[in-house]
Write a structure and sequence with these properties.
Layout lengths: L7 E5 L4 H12 L3 E5 L3 H13 L4 E3 L7 H15 L4 E4 L18 H28 L3 E8 L10 H21 L4 E8 L13 H10 L8 H12 L10 E4 L10 H13 L6
Parallel strand pairs: 1-2, 1-4, 2-3, 4-5, 5-6, 6-7
The protein binds nicotinamide-adenine-dinucleotide.
Length: about 280
């Protein structure tokens, strides 16, 4: 039997690369899925594609920075499928990197917009999904965070801070609601590239990431979708309050490893010699 038969999932940012793949992966496991996103035409296109593959999916567009829109999406899920068992808080402020470069130059509107999409939005979806989950006997919330919330970096200040807020929200909600049957976890995603889109990332940037990934490839949307399916299903019934890295081991080791690897390899060949 499929892992999510009889469950209703709500996926935000479902027109995007990870969200659309996650909606598909949840539907493949038997979930009925409500897809939502700001970009209505792209959202409709993804929904129609999943429907044409035989999946029981519906969509409603909305802006995650607008509480009325979020309430409307939650109401739509209740009217269409009776409520929500799984919430994948995946929508994200992914288009701000070129301006999110430093704090002395930070436009405060940019900071507020990123927090509003990445932290306030997931909180509001939790606000409307949790009562439905409690009424249905439990549920699972999966928040899509980022490795940038776990370590320092030289850019993406607003983004990193917003994802760190999501991590704290995850642990607090897990603490409050797991005893009542609602598990809450986050995925700290590494660099994820849609297959076929690798050429959009310059080769030398890809090489930097690959030199630090213990699994020697870049991540794909399916890597994240598979973890969402696991966290949404009863396979993870003893997992809650966790920030789980899905990054090919990018954050699992000392930062010096990529530089030290050839030196230690040289020392294995010539013991006692620094190469
Ligand atoms: N791709 C990566 O390398 C990576 C790494 C770490 C974390 N993440 C996180 O994964 C999630 C999905 O990212 P992605 O790579 O699929 O990016 P994406 O840009 O393809 O998808 C993000 C989606 O969020 C939607 N969105 C943005 N603002 C919105 C708003 N105001 N209201 C409603 N929807 C809105 C966009 O329309 C888009 O479809 C994000 O939370 C992102 O921060 C991605």
């Amino acid at each position: 039997m499929a892992l999510l038969e009889g469950k209703v999932a709500l996926v935000t940012g479902a027109a995007g690369s990870i969200g659309s793949e996650t909606a598909l992966a949840l539907a493949e496991q038997g979930a009925r899925v409500v897809l939502t996103d700001l970009r209505a035409p792209e959202l409709l296109a993804v929904t129609e594609r999943l429907k044409s593959q035989g999946h029981d999916v519906v969509c409603k567009a909305g802006d995650i920075t607008n509480e009325d829109d979020i309430r409307a999406v939650a109401d739509f899920a209740a009217e269409t499928f009776g409520g929500v068992d799984i919430l994948d808080n995946n929508a994200g402020a992914t288009g701000f990197s070129s301006r999110d470069l430093d704090i002395p130059d930070m436009p405060v509107e940019l900071w507020d917009q990123v927090q509003s999409i990445n932290a306030r939005g997931p909180m509001l979806f939790c606000k409307y999904a949790i009562p439905s989950m409690l009424a249905r006997g439990g549920g699972s919330i999966v928040n899509i965070s980022s490795g940038q919330s776990l370590s320092g970096d030289v850019s993406n200040f607003a983004y990193a801070a917003s994802k760190a807020a999501v991590n704290a929200l995850t642990r607090h909600l897990a603490t409050a609601y797991s005893p009542k049957g609602v598990r809450v976890n986050a995925i700290a995603a590494g660099l994820i590239i849609q297959p076929g889109m690798e050429q959009r990332l310059p080769a030398h940037i890809q090489d930097i990431f690959l030199s630090h990934c213990l699994v020697p490839r870049l991540g794909t949307p399916r890597d994240i979708a598979n973890m969402v399916v696991f966290l949404a299903s009863d396979l993870s019934s003893y997992v809650t309050g966790q920030i789980l890295s899905v990054d090919g081991g990018f954050t699992a080791h000392l930062p010096s490893v990529a530089d030290m690897r050839p030196i230690i390899d040289g020392m294995r060949k010539a013991p006692g010699q620094w190469s």
